[in-house]
Amino acid sequence: MISIKQKTYPFLAAAVFLAGLLCLPAGIRSQELLSDVRIWGNFELEARYYFQDSLIGAPEVPEKILMNGFANVNISYSGFTVGFRYESYQNALLGYDPRYRGNGIPYRFASYTQDNLEITLGNFYEQFGSGLVFRSYEERALGVDNAMDGLRLVYRPMDGVTLRGVIGQQRLFFDTGPGIVRGLDARVGLHSVFPSLANQTGRLTIGGSVVSKFQRDMNPLFNLPENVAAFAGRLNYTRGALNLSAEYAHKINDPSAENNFIYKDGHALHIVTSYAVRGFGMLLSAKRIDNMGFRSDRNATGNDLNINFLPPTTRQHAYSLSSMYPYATQPNGELGFMAELTFSIPRETILGGSYGTTVTMNYSLANSIHRDRIHDTIPIGQRGTEGYRSRFFRMGDEKYFEDFNVEISRRISRGLRGLFSYAYIAYNQNVIEGYVDKEMIFAHILIADMTWRLPERRSLRWELQHLSTRQDKQNWAMAMIEYSIAPNWFFSISDQYNYGNNDPDLRNHYYTLGAAYARAGNRFALSYGRQRQGVICVGGVCRQVPASNGFTLHVTSSF
Amino acid sequence: MRLLKYILFFLFAMPAPVLFFQACDIVEPPYLTGVDVPNGGHGDAVQRVLLEEFTGHQCPNCPEGSQIARELKDVYGDRLVIMSIHAGWFARTSEGTFAYDFQTEEGNALNDAFGVFQNPIGMVNRKDFDGNRLLGPAAWGEAIHHELGRQPAFRIGTGSIYHAGHHKLDVHIQVDVLLDSDGPFYVSVFLTEDGIIKPQRTNNPDYPSGVIMEYEHNHVLRTSLNGTWGEPFGNGYVAAGQQYTWHYSLNMDEEWTAENCSVIAMVYHGEHMDVLQVQKHPLQP
After folding, report:
1. What is the ipTM metric for this complex?
2. Confidence band (pLDDT; 50, 70, 90) for A15?
3. How many angstroms away from the CA of B9 is the closest CA of chain A?
4. Which of A145, A172, B71, B129 is most exposed, with minimal Cβ within 10 Å?
5. A167: which chain B residues are within 8 Å (Cβ-Cβ)?
6. CB contact under 8 A, B203 and A223
7. B92, B74, B89, B93: which is closest to B35 by C-alpha?
8. Beta-strand (E) ranges in A90-226?
9. A29-33, A130-134, A457-461 — which is least confidently predicted?
10. Average pLDDT, stretch A347-367?
11. Which DSSP symbol is given to B28?
């Protein structure tokens, strides 16, 4: 049922928590209290002054100045912890959801731990397994915060056994979503529980989760499930340098805006294997996702109210041109693989040089899953049907993303270190960004990153990058120089130049000039420059970034 | 002691998934429901609901939103009044295919005032549902269904005369108060046009070019007859039985096809902005 939510008073609630803490130790002398009380937190402010720049498509910003800011304050005393986060958006920076508007305390909590039982009231973050059925987290760079508001219990009844229970609603900007989320998770370390396994070199941990959401059905067109549950089972095995993790999840019918209101069950499988010894490391991961979007509001879209998290099996690039085409996980269906090999070439060899060389090779592929019609007359994904049939191990015909990259890191001399990288990326813009008329992008990226240590704790770092592609905006070149005087000062200048654009009018420079000063726990950074339109992703979750031009002030502080 | 812990663990932990599974709603076909349209009546007056759809001809997801609006219109008939507002980034013009300008001063003002941040998105009676006034297409049905069940506080009567030779439109609006209510109240009158054939971006794979060249744009906001926010009436309070009337004239753009145009009159609350009643009046009955 749709109802107008009553306003909550988070500030008042936080104040009550704090007052409660101060009242708790009645009878204890103030010196004793203060000596045991621990206070910590942090503060961040990012403000930008925007200029309209029609050359790069930077829009006019009526407010001229926009600002995102927040502060976390936590206080603990004798197993009892309270905290809150104050957030302020005046208004939200371009690229962040404008529903972040105004001020408030959307995150506040009180927790208490005693005799292996941890109780949290209010807001909390939590994750079951790899997150296939439940992950509540914050990723500030994306504007994602699906913090739970309710209750959490964590109980460790014996060594190796952890039980978790959560219930609540998820944060939606300065409010909560309409659905209620309930979940249980159990994790058992078999070597701890069974003494006969304690002496084994291998360690096996098993776990299971169940998460259910409730949202009332008022849809006039569809008969919708009000209670939707997802189940997951997982294991983790470690033996020496070998680590194997696997998790399988199943979700019952969950028609939603994300899957176009189909009634098919969802499935997900995620496997990660790694082997690492000195000078050699290997990682293999695979996943299959089929209709596994899971939100506490079936009508939600974008990054709102996700209950689960689908881990990426693609590499997250850090350099500006290699991250131009990042992959976003496709919750409606995806088959992905990744392999990564890291090895060191010993020093004093022809290939290894005087100081040794480290090579990392990485390959990843994300593809569609196989889909068949459920009936000759019903199109795949038709609303109000089972949607489609899919064979579990059969790959679909459409490539979503492919990435092959090699990174060579080498110390060239006593003061000079270099990192050289090549990446080939195939990027399906239609699937990842939601078009139908865009070409598949094939990009080749070369990167050189050199750091030169200078006397008196100074260093000079420069990057040269080049991206070549015949699609999208064609070729780019990038150069950057950073000069730092540790531990206080930092200066940088960079430019990304879209010199190969087929349209000469769009061969733009995206220059940035910046300086930062850090002292104790405080850091101040001021920069001026242009930001190109694009997409940024963290862990396969992405947001669009519009073009902008202007000054940025960034202040952080921790205590 | 350890054995006792195992027993307790299994006793308490193992039944939980079973209970969760029992609490699942596994829906069997048919998945579509027979729609039971709420009465929302007050004597001879019925409650009508306004869906303001924010859209743009360069928005590839918008045809899907319009399709949902069309399906809802099929269900609710004239109880649902749709107004498509072309505004914002996706409504921009560009040389070539998208040179035609659907934008209006009033549409841009509504877009800015309600903080529209993506397309397609809409408002149902401009009402705040669970903290959201702006709703994605998937949420429109529930909100409309909910609003149709309200008891109408107003009845709106409309009449018009179109002078074809001069492209001039005269409109008569009458609002009857059915329930004593606290205001302030406003009446807003807009003109919309159906059947405009112009290009529209799409993400439908049936159109590999990404553009439907002969897309039919319906319910398109053309202009207002008394400003974006209309005019107030009732001095902050209205009593059942009161009646208010207005006359408006409009010189219509010659490009507009009068037979496809409709007048939309609405009464809304000036503080919380909720639309309390709406009426659509086609110029060609």
Report:
1. 0.82
2. low
3. 8
4. B71
5. none
6. no
7. B74
8. 102-114, 117-124, 126-127, 135-136, 138-139, 144-145, 148-158, 161-172, 175-176, 180-189, 203-214
9. A29-33
10. 92
11. P
